[in-house]
Amino acid sequence: MDLIRWGIVATGNISGSFTRDLAELPDAEVTAVASRSMASADRFAEVHGIAQRFDDYRALIDSKVVDVLYIGTPHPQHYAVARAALEAGVAVLCEKPVTLNARQARDLADLSRANGTLFAEAMWMRTDPVIQAYFEDLRSGVIGAPKQVLADFGFFKPELPERLLRPDLGGGALLDLGIYPATFTYMALGKPEAMTAMAEVNEDGVDLVTSMIWRYPGAMASLTCGMTAQLPWIAAVSGPEGSLMLPHRWHHPDHYIRRTAKGDERITVPKSGLGYHYEAAEVMRSLRAGLTECPAFPHDETIDILDLLDEARRQTGVTYPGDDEFLGG
Ligand SMILES: NC(=O)c1ccc[n+]([C@@H]2O[C@H](COP(=O)([O-])OP(=O)(O)OC[C@H]3O[C@@H](n4cnc5c(N)ncnc54)[C@H](OP(=O)(O)O)[C@@H]3O)[C@@H](O)[C@H]2O)c1
């Protein structure tokens, strides 16, 4: 079996979870890791049994020892690293939000197409087996035409990770958490004809809470996210014949509830690992098929969703130092 060689950029929280899950795939090999510091690269490499270590992201991209790069830096750092990899012909799976804004994501999608190099946003929810079963069910018409979506994502922690509160690290609820309700709603109803957003913004300009209404011809969605309250953290699509409901921590669920005239049915789908290897497997299938875009992570949808988040930020006045960074021609 041909192994696909992964390189990991950044040694933080999500890089660790993703790398752990790659062990679920017998045809994946993690050949290298890069950190801003050698001590951290060494530490990460020891935990995950990785041979090559770099103290510079660029050195890993230039090393030619990987087929695909996984990027797990904070959001403002995604764009430059992903662009450098795509320019060098190294495929990219980059954490969500793939960039700070739609303009940067459009540039990466254009470069991916021009260079024939795969580029995907690591929106792992899209490849979760329960979520996939959920959307198959929805599309079968079991609840009739979808009329309303409710989706929230939020929690309160007395000590939030620094990353979530610092503007220079892309802090704020919308980009980190709100992207899940936004992606879910887009998957259910597509692009809205109108949207409105309101936010509670702190003195540093970071949104602690953002709520949005997306309006469609004949349908409506309510989305909210926040870092000040223990939200129910659930999502549902409803139609005249019933509802499909995803429970607490719905973006990686172990079941959903189909509520129709027949009563409540609990639908489960067997899963393994933490859930990150499903997105990795999708990337590997796409690479082997010679694609530059994964069927589960369409570039147009990634960009549309960032356009909607841009519009929400325009309405709520949230900006980031990296918003103007643009490396395209
Ligand atoms: N899919 C998911 O379930 C999920 C979950 C959590 C987060 N995420 C996404 O993953 C990204 C990272 O989140 P995380 O929770 O893993 O963050 P984290 O624990 O803070 O780790 C981020 C890593 O990025 C690197 N980095 C590069 N430039 C940095 C800078 N200026 N300041 C701080 N760190 C910097 C650091 O690694 P080195 O020191 O090794 O360079 C750091 O350890 C975010 O975009 C987030 O939205 C996704």
Automatic annotation (TrEMBL):
Residues 138-244 form the GFO/IDH/MocA-like oxidoreductase domain. The keyword Oxidoreductase applies. Keywords: Oxidoreductase. InterPro entries: Gfo/Idh/MocA-like_OxRdtase_N (IPR000683), Gfo/Idh/MocA_domain (IPR050984), GFO_IDH_MocA-like_dom (IPR055170), NAD(P)-bd_dom_sf (IPR036291). Residues 4-119 form the Gfo/Idh/MocA-like oxidoreductase N-terminal domain. SUPFAM superfamilies: Glyceraldehyde-3-phosphate dehydrogenase-like, C-terminal domain, NAD(P)-binding Rossmann-fold domains. Belongs to the Gfo/Idh/MocA family. This is Gfo/Idh/MocA family protein. It comes from Kribbella deserti.
